[in-house]
Hints:
The protein is of the alpha/beta class. Helices cover 37% and strands 10% of the residues. The chain has a single domain, classed as Ribonuclease Inhibitor (Leucine-rich repeat, LRR (right-handed beta-alpha superhelix), Alpha-Beta Horseshoe), CATH 3.80.10.10. The chain has a three-stranded parallel sheet with strand order 1-2-3, with no helix packed on it. Helix 1 (2-15) packs parallel to helix 2.
Amino acid sequence: MGDVACERIGFLLRENSSVSILSLCENHIKSVGCGFIARPLDRGYGTDKLKRRLTHLFLNRNHIGPVGAKSLSLALVHNRTLEALEVRG
């Protein structure tokens, strides 16, 4: 899938509040793609903050690196809906 497709995944997460579980394991996602996915997870991003229902995100076996990990951590500081996050190498 790669980083380019992650931008569309970010739009999906922002616009579609019915997504509760998202598995993106082994999709060649790097730090840029991780940033696209992380942005909509931030509680303060977008207009439909209260409708977000993503509870589980799996990013195992991707190469997000330290920059991608930082994007995720900054986005999730105020996130109250995500219950499980897996980012194993």
